[in-house]
Amino acid sequence: MKKIFGFAIATLCIPAAFAQSGKGFTSLFDGKTLKGWKQLGKATYEVQNGMLVGTTVPNSPNTFLMTEKEYGDFVLETDMKMEDTTSNSGVQFRSHINPQGNNGAGRVFGYQLDIDPSSRKWAGGIYDEGRREWLYALSLNKNAQDAWKNGEWNHVKIECIGHHIKTWINGIPCAYVVDTMDATGFIALQVHSISKPEQAGKKIYWKNIRIRTSNLKPEPFGKGIYVYNAIPNQLSDYEKKNGWKLLFDGKTTNGWRSAKGEGFPAKGWEVKDGLLNVIGADGAESTNGGDIVTNDEYAAFDLSWDFKLTPGANSGVKYFVTLKEDSKGSAIGLEYQLLDDTLHPDAKLGRDGNRTLASLYDLMTAKKTARFIRQPGNWNTARLVVYPNNHVEHYLNGVKVLEYERGSQAFRDLVAISKYKVWPAFGEAKKGHILLQDHGNSVSFRSIKIRQL
Fold first, then answer.
1. The CATH homologous superfamily of the domain defined by 241-452
2. Is the fold of 2-212 the same as that of 241-452?
3. Which of 69, 101, 357, 447 has the fewest CB atoms inside 10 Å of its own CB, making it the most exposed?
4. Residue closest to 294 by CA, chosen among 323, 326, 337, 329
5. Is there a contact between 441 and 280 (Cβ–Cβ < 8 Å)?
């Protein structure tokens, strides 16, 4: 035995009593005892009729039943069922303990396959417990949001091979994350803390918990599913095969030019350490380097990028930019707003917050939860999808924050009461450039990728 963070971690094999199952899998739960597991937290775990049953209790933080052994690359499968549809649960993997967390009682952190039976339907997503929070909310893959069946047994699968993490619920591909944060760690079964007395005594059931750690081969994952790739400026083979392309290679300005001319701006922008940076100029709009646009134009597409704001910064990513309007400042187009909502005064202008972060600038307000916003100095991930039928969606850090129909009457009514009303058929061009805005504040971009739909 060795000790990590004051907890004993077995370095030997799983007890022989855990019988081998088919296809190279080893059972982690013998159906009779909790051998090979240890607990952190106050919720209860017991064995009932061959099932492992967790029960919620009041006045406890999240509770975890953890394997004594740590795992690196593996395929894990189990069957799960929940009684409560107002709370959630999950399966931790490649996880660890912070002994100072929860006032010295210890806190688990690491990857979690989230089981969320509520109406938002995020079961199968990937959450970073105790650290970065959502990596892959299942709104990123809406075709998988009905995979989990409330009140029934559900088959859950996790595949971790190298930096690639994939999840399935009942055979349906759910989440795909490429990340380098953790290579090994324990597996744990979560009983979530509860906020209401009536949630006490609710049960979560597991059975057929098994793992395979050798002869691993990545399983096919369907087609066209969005990947959260945390390795800057890189595409996985899966992304390449599904039509994704980098708009910024991390080294050059290839594929970009000034919105005001054919060449790339001679000042105001820089490529440094894998980042495409706007150099601040006292907050003056398009007076330093000016906006930059893609050489190519796009009609229907799935666009994703990472951005990091400085305190008080203002910028934006515009789409369907035609460069035909006679505008003195920034070029005209639909805009995914990038803004420090706390310090920049633009957050209080417009109508009902429609100039805040991730909003459709001056038209629609992003509906976002404060805890999922990473403040200036931290990286955020944005996603923008324009479908061939002109349905548009904005995402921030994996969560969908608004959607609308481009060219609909509702859209035109919003344009009519906005600053854009002076431009005929604003935002309805068949195709246009992607634009990164120079609003005079320091902002960094990376991992800009696009897939044409």
1. Exo-inulinase; domain 1 (2.60.120.560)
2. yes
3. 101
4. 323
5. yes
* 386 compared with 13, residue with greater pLDDT: 386
What pLDDT sits at residue 146? Answer: 95
- Positive or negative, the CA dihedral 300, 304, 310, 312 is positive
45 pLDDT higher than 60: yes
Q: Which CATH class is domain 2-212?
A: mainly beta
Say how far apart CA 265 and CA 289 lie, in whole Å.
5
Average pLDDT over residues 429-449: 96
DSSP 374: P
Query: Are the CB atoms for 277 and 423 separated by under 8 Å?
Result: no
**What stretches of 101-153 adopt beta strand conformation (E)?**
107-115, 126-129, 133-136
pLDDT tens for each residue of 51-107 = 999 998 887 778 899 999 999 999 999 999 998 887 789 999 999 999 888 888 889
User: 451: burial class by Cβ within 10 Å (0-12, 13-18, 19+)?
Assistant: middle
For residues 94 and 34, the answer to whether their CB atoms sit within 8 Å is no
Residues 242 and 99: their CA atoms lie apart, in Å, by: 42
The answer to whether the CB of 246 falls within 8 A of the CB of 233 is yes
Distance of CA 449 to the CA centre of its chain: 15
**153 token code pair:** 């047994």
**pTM, 2 dp:** 0.89
pLDDT at 22: 59
CA 205 vs. chain centroid, Å, equals 27
Cβ atoms 208, 78 nearer than 8 A: yes
pLDDT in tens, 383-394: 999 999 999 999
Cα 293 to chain centroid distance, Å, stands at 26
Q: Is 289 helix (H, G, I), strand (E, B) or coil?
A: coil
Domain residue spans in the chain?
A: 2-212, 241-452
